[in-house]
């Protein structure tokens, strides 16, 4: 069918079918009622199942594209059956299609109609049948909603949607031009480069231009945040990057990133850079006691009808931190959290936690895949990413929780939940050790798990406004079931039992656990889909550890920025002959606090003393108080809130003196900036190794197997040492914050002289073979400290 061409405007904007339809066809309430949605993998499997039931001539993944005015609309239709002349859109779900809200179903039809219009243009056909196919993964059945459309009708609907989007598209195209023009001539906001900062920036720019990943280790105090943001922003125009994501493993990094981005925007004419802070739902929700649906929450009622005005105001403002999002949302009667989720599509820079991209349900990742974004990513404090992503792909199902839920659930759910509890209890009873690794779950447990999950799904389909513990339990059970389906060498399936109570019928602390050891199988496709990724930290060596455990590409680069200060500015000493092993602590405690006291006497000032646990911290602090009550001290405790943490840090004054006791790897061991006289030294007791336990033994054994599977790979030594030494170096990094700082670092354990430990510490610390033990003056110091403590 001939298509009437319209003159194209000066601007051009490429939009996906999904994005076009979501902008023009979404109306009515926000509806986040629970529906048993399928995972991305289940969606792919559903499409494959539908295709396998069609004929040999069935076409799949049909690329379609057309231009209308200044728009280039593109997408992929799921399938075309030439025998029935039917274009299909497959929507995979877990449960009944009747439970899909009306406004979402209308959106599905809008997408299919748009594919139909593009199909008719491409194939020059006069009419086509459109079939919306809902595929239920639980029953493996499909429901087809089919309707025949003429090409002229579909063309009219397509042009109507394009016309509705055109004004916004022109605005976005002009915004992109202004943004890229400003970034191409961007000046370095601080004006002057710090030592090492330019080296870091050049490496970031180079790898971004090449579309590669980079692991960068750079010392504290050189300005890593602006040193990575600036070169990436400069690379955006030439590489056609759609969005930049600055992701952090800890909340303090987000504030630093927003400060740096604020300084960048101030240097740009008209500030054409939209910055969005990704806010957690529990922090942004105005009505946590209400369900996310128009019948329950006033901020969900008519959400999509009021969204256009709020969206226009937000993108015009451009600076969208949590405060701005809340102000704009409430002015228009919208939920702040879901307004922020909508604004993801229109922001240039996203600042938030790493879970937005790496979690199985990460919204930023889902949108990037669905809308085809070219995404460049920065990950701050990346030494934490292995542990963070391990937690994302781990799950635990406590027997006590399962039994309590079965006892208190509605009557219709009790039977399947009790069967699951019985199967779990029987499986746990078979364990012969407190932590027993299993190859696979028993068939009866899997069947009971499927039945219980299905029963819960049916229950919540009938009660879409339900909230509370039972719904949370259902989410956890879904998570447990899905991770069980991905079981492999990267994850330990184990029975965790309490030897005193596991077999008493009450459950005790017994649980079925899935402990992820290496998140690489889950993360590898995500890194591969990014344009570039820069993972940076003051402690990310050795690079092979992060690269192999996270699944980074083989061509990932490595940069180790030298320190910005002379090595002699940090006096590093090892307490050789001092053991802080658990069994040796009572005997060595008096000598340990003697080192603290002697160092304080020799060089009075502010110090931090790091210990492996709160119990060990308390023992050392109390012993020092008894030995030297004249030395001021303050301690971190288990339940410190924001005010208490601020009070702890406030004790570090320029003219102050004393020792702050903190936990190694805790909140005061990272991201704390105490330059100059605020902190002149640190003591680090123990090696930050994880506590000895059957679980840790199993984790390390599996990790050793995974890291040693490739004979050509770089040997890493004992894998448990890598994160331990990263914590040590992070804590030590609190001492020198500027090139002018000077200070002392005491490593309080004889194991710091071992070659495998020294190999993971900064070479400039001077702990190599030539300094295998403490120096002569250090030995003299230790002897004096021991005598003084007696």
From TrEMBL:
Xref: InterPro entries: ATP-dep_Helicase_C (IPR006555), DinG/Rad3-like (IPR045028), Helic_SF1/SF2_ATP-bd_DinG/Rad3 (IPR014013), P-loop_NTPase (IPR027417), PDDEXK-like_dom_sf (IPR011604), RAD3-like_helicase_DEAD (IPR010614)
* Molecular-function GO term, any one: DNA binding
- Listed GO biological process terms: nucleobase-containing compound metabolic process
| Annotated ranges, domain Helicase ATP-binding | 183-466
Q: Is Ribonucleoprotein found in the keyword set?
A: no
- Swiss-Prot/TrEMBL keywords: ATP-binding, DNA-binding, Helicase, Hydrolase, Iron, Iron-sulfur, Isomerase, Metal-binding, Nucleotide-binding
Pfam families named among the record's database cross-references = DEAD_2, Helicase_C_2
As for family, the record states: Belongs to the helicase family. DinG subfamily.
Listed PANTHER family? DNA REPAIR DEAD HELICASE RAD3/XP-D SUBFAMILY MEMBER, REGULATOR OF TELOMERE ELONGATION HELICASE 1
| Protein name stated in the entry | ATP-dependent DNA helicase
Task: Give the species this sequence originates from.
Answer: Rubrivivax rivuli
